[in-house]
Amino acid sequence: MSFNTVDSYSVSLVSGGKLTTPFIHKSGDNDYEYTSKYDLLSNSFAFYTDSQRDYSVVPFNNMLRIYCSNTRQCVKTIKFNNNKTLENELLSKNGVFLESHIVTSNIIFIDNLKFIELVLKNLRVIYVPIDRRIDYDSEMKVVQMTAESDLEFDNSSLVVTQSLNDNVFLAEDAENLYICTKYSSENSEKLILQNKVEKETLVSYSWSSNKSNILLITKSSSDDETLKKKKSKSKGKKTGSSSNSSYKKINATIFITNQIEMTVPTLEFTDIDINTSDSISKNAKIITQSTITNDLSKIALGFASGVIQLLTLQPSNNDVTAQFLKWHCDSILALSFNSNSTQLFSGGWEKVFVYWDIAQGNIKKNFIPRLNGVIVSIMEPLFKENYIAVLLQHVDNVTNMDLEWVLLNKSDFKSKLNVNGPLINFENEYLVKAIKKENIRPKSAIKQKSTTSTMIGTPGFNDITIRSFTNSVRSPEILYFPHCNGINSYDLNKNESLKYIQLSKSVDMGKIRMEHENIIEPEILNIENFQLQYENKSYEILVTVEALRSQQIGVFNNSNNKQDNEISYTLKFWRKQNLGVSNIDNEASEWVLQTKIISPHGIEANQLLGDIKILDIHISGNYDDDLKKRHIFTTDSHGGIKKWAIIEVSENVEEPWKFGLVNYKPANSNLKMENNFVIESLDKSLILQSLGDRLHFLDAIDLNSSLKFLQLDSNIQTMSLNKVNGTIVIMTKIGILSYDLVKNEIVSGFDLYEELQKSINGNFKDSNSQLGKSKLELYNMKRLLDINPITGDIVLAVNDLSGTSSTLFFFDKDLNEMIFEKKHDSWIACLRWNKQNNFNFIDINSRIGIISSNTSNVNNKSTIVQEDQILAPLNSISSSSNENVEIISSNKNDQKELDMIMDTDNTNDSKSRLNNHMFLPLFNSVNSNTMVDTVFDTVLKMVQ
Predict the structure, then answer these.
(1) Cβ neighbours of residue 733 closer than 8 Å, sequence gap 6 or more
(2) Domain for residue 96, yes or no?
(3) Which band of pLDDT confidence, cut at 50, 70 and 90, is reported for residue 222?
(4) Cα dist from 380 to 103, 338, 542, whole Å
(5) Are 442 and 332 in contact (CB under 8 A)?
(6) Mean of the per-residue pLDDT values for the chain?
(7) Exposure of 105 by Cβ count < 10 A (0-12 exposed, 13-18 middle, 19+ buried)?
(8) Is residue 25 within 8 Å of residue 437, measured between CB atoms?
(9) How many domains, in total, are found in the chain?
(10) CA angle, corner 71, sides to 386 and 863, nearest 5?
(11) How much is the pTM?
């Protein structure tokens, strides 16, 4: 080992993260709710205006980002691990097991300075300054709120769920919802109980857009006896949440928040009839959302059937008149009135935003085309009436809670700003259901079976990897994440999702979302990309494997082994001509389908439906190889191999070339495996295939000719060719080893049995967890090991399932010694070489890290040269046998630089230099519609 090898890498978190909201997971048999019961936007997201500019504070699980709505740019990023106060308060020491801390954020002024007031679930309040720089040691005011000691609840179980203003808070424990006011003294703040309501009687609660009115919808006493009888009859059976029960009558109780005491409601209406139709379906009686106007004149109730009941309040005679608004055909998940109570906004499962004009006697409705996701929250920001904020959820992904925040212009309802993190697909629901406990999917009243859907291609139950991403060949800072039936492109430099590319669709529908017709969409399982030259033109090629579950019913719907034999696979080759060097040019060009192969590996033996399962894609050849030397291998679950390459089509002038089959090894129906990897030797004379615990050597010309095989101690988990020395790096269930093709022997290796056992045997303390003692099958180790093709250095990620951390192991090219190991505070879901000079990885919290080479130019290959190379390690460096293990950054002079991860608006020596991440997003997105002075005004604000 040399010091140069150690110094050549630095590890840091640089991007990523996911939008966070105070979702609450409901434990028990019913994992899904019709609604989250929270008006998410009016709490987690804050808005303010300054010097005629409008700003929005968007919370992520690892940072706060402030966007300027006028320029559509992020003007400030406050990363939690860049300040010791935020790090201690907001970042979990136990990794993934804690839910989102931030309940609400407000913009307040203290001594004419702006602060973001962050209210946390644990009754703590943090005041984050906006107008000044935030260093790691910058002090922030943190206040602990305490509840009255004589209250009927236990402080340890109490959590704050909403903050309506500086004075009124909503809190809850396991049994009750509490309305509290805050009493502030010089150094302490107390919560004073004003009122409480039992959760058993609570149907829904909400508040007006100006947060001055609290609305509680509770069960009517006339219905209570009937409900108790039903409950006693169903005792012992599996039942859902009580909120999903149907009612005939309800009570509406209203409190005004500016009152000194709220022990007595301002208005109360009892026994309100909620019959929305003559239908016998219980969906017509299930209330999913509610809202109230600012002037206390109207209440809106949304139902699982899609009907909205508009109630006009008449306090003088304690009467209520009802109107029914019908357009939606599925669960209403979002309701909100505008500030002057003339419009009602609604949204839900159809992904359609509907606005109702209720000012006139004849109610009119309008709607805009479907948005990207299911609408779970709508709000009109208080400071501006010309905006509508919408929170979307990508429910097509059942393995992760993908949220997208959209700011619509109210004049034309076009998108003003879209914000979301990287959209990723995990292999199954193991994380969100058993570990993170996110309420990932609001319930659809129509497509109930979707809640029990099984992921296509799921290799094992306990899998924490994502479907592998890849970097753009020309622009390594652009990451492609396979996501359901499309690809999410993500820019590391901007820390933004660029666009969502829908590569596959079963059918185009109108205004109603296709789930309602039980249309099954294809899922993209694997993607790989590479570059090739043809007639002096450079192309980027994307290879995708799609899986589609059969939609046949009846005699063709074979009931045996449904998970496998009803899935068809499609191999697609996409091309995109690289128009220029700039990212803007590359992203402007579209992917064009070059070749499509249906059932590329054939159909399962003795089956009417169902293809042979495709397991892996391997791109052979070197980066600078010409057109005909790039080979693509696909492998299947029965030991089959197919080799694809360019085939010229002379008679077709428009498409003179396509991809076709050039060699293959047929599948063996007697074999059944979850791993089948192939690689090509350095001289391309041999094809190496892993089958179980054997490595087979095949002739490159005749793949059916097996020359010999190598017997290993356990099953091969992954293998890769080290292009620097020509050795084969093999990962087994016991360790990692290097096989020399010239010497025909295993030359070196490391026994990692103890480390890998941590990744297999989980021991969870939560007795209520479904896990208990569980096992993680290492089917997807390929996603956790990669090699630097320039230096030959090897990086391996091992997740510790007995805890919540992971370890990055670095080995030299010959596997003679371990260079160092590095701890990360959560599990790593995927690790990839970025085709230039760095590794990228993503963890289960959607945070993207970079393992970067500090050499700016190697072998004349361009790299991402970042000006903030003092980005620090992810965590404290673990002990290692090497004395110099702590030296993993190029900058050794200032130890303080090793204690934090720099963020986009801050550097240690900020007075002497600026971070390029501050301005890069501004100028990359400037177009003809953006005035130049607005860009420089924003830059000046940031510099100040």
Answers:
(1) 714, 715, 717, 756, 778
(2) yes
(3) low
(4) 19, 6, 41
(5) no
(6) 76
(7) buried
(8) yes
(9) 2
(10) 145
(11) 0.83
